[in-house]
């Protein structure tokens, strides 16, 4: 009887050791695959750094003049230099192709605004309004990732 218990105990220890070794090997392969193709496993890709876009391209649009409502009969103007930021050649081409639409969104945004109201806005406020309008027009198919205001002149 005593020998049977010892045999069972030895069998359990050996089988648990084999199972532990198999789990260690499998876990190591999941975390650090020994692949010559350079591919990563699903598990290790969870902890990998996400790749940022490799290139940043700009489409500059200079001297955009928009008429603003003045407090008197005198008209006021806003001159903007913009740079649309694209992350691929295709995005840059699509942004350039949609330039008339982009200009229309800009003009429609400012045409109903009072000069004094625009004058009190910060560049961040204007930027956020422009991006919200562009996202409203393009939705998820927006060909550029951002727009930068490089010059803003009031007259």
TrEMBL record:
Segments passing through the bilayer: none
Main localisation: membrane
Subcellular location: Cell inner membrane; Cell membrane
Cited InterPro entries: FliL
Membrane topology annotation: Single-pass membrane protein
Protein family according to the UniProt entry: Belongs to the FliL family.
Protein's name in the database: Flagellar protein FliL
Organism phylogeny: Bacteria, Pseudomonadati, Pseudomonadota, Gammaproteobacteria, Enterobacterales
């Amino acid at each position: 009887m005593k020998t049977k218990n010892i045999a069972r105990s030895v069998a359990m220890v050996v089988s648990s050791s084999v199972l532990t070794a198999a789990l260690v090997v499998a876990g190591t392969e999941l975390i650090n695959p020994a692949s010559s193709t350079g591919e990563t496993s699903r598990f290790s890709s969870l902890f990998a750094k996400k790749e940022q876009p490799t290139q940043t391209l700009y489409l500059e649009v200079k001297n955009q003049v928009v008429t603003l409502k003045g407090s008197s009969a005198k008209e006021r103007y806003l001159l903007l230099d913009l740079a649309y930021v694209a992350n691929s050649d295709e995005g840059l081409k699509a942004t350039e192709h949609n330039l008339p639409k982009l200009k229309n969104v800009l003009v429609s945004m400012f045409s109903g605004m009072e000069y004094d109201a625009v004058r009190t806005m910060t560049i961040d406020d204007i930027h956020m309004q422009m991006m919200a309008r562009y996202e409203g027009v393009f939705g998820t198919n927006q060909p550029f990732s951002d727009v930068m205001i490089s010059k803003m002149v009031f007259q």
